[in-house]
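Working notes for the structural subgroup meeting. M.R. asked for a predicted model of this chain before we commit to crystallization trials. I am recording the input and output together here so anyone reviewing the notebook later can reproduce the run.

Input as submitted:
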Amino acid sequence: MESTELVTLVVIGVVLVIGVVSFLASRIGVAAPLALTVVGVGVGAVPAIPHFEVEPSLVLTVILPPLLYAAARQVPFVDFRRNLRVIGFLAIVLVVVSAVLVGVLVHLLWMTVPLALAIALGAVVAPPDAVAATSLGKRLGLPPRIVTILEGEGLVNDATALVLLSTMLAIVTTTVASPSGWMITITFIWAVVGAVLIGGILGAVAVALRRRITDPVLDAAISLVIPFVAYLAGEFCHASGVVAVVVAGILVGNQGAYRIRASFRLAESGTWRIVTLLVENAVFLFMGFQLWPIVNAVAGSNELFGTLGVAGLVIVLLIGVRFAAMPPLLSTIRKRYRKRVARADQTKGRFDDVTEEDFQRRAANFRQLGITQSPFRSFTRGVRARFGLVTKKDSSARDRIVAQLAELEKNPPPVPVEIDATARARFSTTFQNFRKRLDQQNNDLTAERDQALGWRDGVVLGLSGMRGVVTVAAVQTIPDGQPMRESLVLIAFAVAIVTLVAQGLLLPPVVRRLRPAKDAPGSERAELYELRKLMKDAGDTAVASAVTAAEASGTPLQEGVLHEVNAQAEMWMGRLEVWANADLSDEANEVVQFQQLRRVQLVAERDALRDAYERGAFSSETIDVLRAALDSEEISLDAVDSRAAEA
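Returned structure, recorded in token form:
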């Protein structure tokens, strides 16, 4: 058989195995990554099936970027920002601590393994996998905050691990002086900061380009190449390509939702869903498939049982360190929340009643007193205040300005300073941004209170440290010729497969037993109705302005047009009001009845459309327009059904 035909058969077989195993896994209540890993181990044990190797650089450069980008696109930036400290602790501090502890353990057990090489192994096995944990979390219906934390941790911790791995390997393989602690710190800071800049620039450019593109094929092409461009650009600048991909994905996913055409975004979602389904599941299948050649290599040197024993100790250490980190993490979150509440209570009385007119008057008083400050000094003073680094000079300057303003309020000047229209517009924008920041702060505190993490959430987070594709790919970058390389590779494979399968199987019953706090029943539906009402008010205001402008231009809108536009908005509000107030525990509630009746109607309409198409009574273009309209309505019904099932 020719090589081309063999490759084609292998691809077909892999796709079929992924589809069948994923389907069966969903039927028996097991996550697809777990089932595919087990199947891969079983397939790899068959002697008749030839084994082949994939270059680790291929996994890190070609496979990892699209997987991370697809996951980052779905991360809500607001939730990511609110949990940034928790994500930073788990993805940076915990990864570094775990890597060092694993390195020390392996070095003490195997003195022939240099400490730097042992820490390199620790960096490989320290980061949990982004795909495995979040796929399990979403399937189990974990609270949104836990899912966001797991997603954020999995997206960021790979960068920490890979930077630490490359640094340790440089120490092992170089003959020059080892880098100092300061140099390692600077390298890591640049890896993160540089990657954030690169990913932010590329993400902004991608959104700007796709906003102006009208061709769907070109839009899809740009969407597919963004993760690879971001990764290569980050690596070229000696920054973290992983972080650059994540930043670009978050920016495109959040900003593109309001700037890229809806039809393009819908097509993009379908494309990335297929890509991630095939690629990530193929990775887990291949991860299990690769195990046996490594086992045979270690067994050939009579070190198998010793290596498996060390792997068991490493697994226990990793799980123990993660669980041990949860109590101080939760305690820190609670303490910080109390401090933020106290600080918010202090500012509440000072700013809640401030109106735009008060703000404009205060700005005029500043001009009257000749008080000016550069934006840079204002920014640095705000940063110092944010971290509690207010100096005596800052305090005395503030007290002096407050006293001057109070005196000016008592004794206003006979000729007050006038503010021109341009300055007033600028101050108005500043005031709106100021009120937006206050609302953001209050909403963050409300979200923190409503989604507070308890000990049950700590147990779930501790048990969600499954390793995966990065561990398996990164360990194979350890150069040949290093002491006990095959044993180190087997340890990484054992950690990845055991934690993925064991913790993945243990997590569902633990979640069902603990039942972490979720949103109150109906709260999401009430939020949807409230937000849609806010959107409708904004739309009504815009329509009223458009009607006024049309009348002023001498071409008033026809009354029927205005009535139809308003009817569309009212129809949406009516649907959401029914959904928000319905008792979904009642099998015969209004939502279910509407869904069932509307589906009967859609089926009949689609049958009539197909009959008209087969008869050739209408043009294909007309058929396509109405088919797309029916598809859109069916997608809307499916979305309501899925939400109702989760409620």
